[in-house]
């Protein structure tokens, strides 16, 4: 999956969480996922805690950081 495809999984809406980037169709901040990853959480653990998101959503959060 290309970065462009991944980035389409992220939305920025000024009416949702003051325009902070979120996973599309969810109100989960990109920064939250990045914080969890930087704290040592694994992708599998994050997927267990947030069952509504997919691995591609987490990869999209990482792609935003680049």
Automatic annotation (TrEMBL):
Gene3D superfamilies xref list: Winged helix-like DNA-binding domain superfamily/Winged helix DNA-binding domain (1.10.10.10)
Family annotation (InterPro entries): DUF433 (IPR007367), Homeodomain-like_sf (IPR009057), WH-like_DNA-bd_sf (IPR036388)
One Pfam family named in its UniProt record: DUF433
PANTHER family reported for this sequence: SSL5025 PROTEIN, SSR2962 PROTEIN
Protein name: DUF433 domain-containing protein
């Amino acid at each position: 999956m290309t970065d462009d495809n991944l980035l389409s999984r992220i939305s920025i809406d000024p009416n949702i969480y003051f325009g902070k980037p979120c996973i599309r169709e969810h109100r989960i901040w990109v920064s939250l996922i990045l914080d969890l990853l930087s704290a040592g959480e694994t992708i599998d653990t994050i997927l267990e805690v947030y069952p509504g998101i997919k691995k591609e959503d987490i990869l999209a959060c990482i792609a935003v950081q680049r």
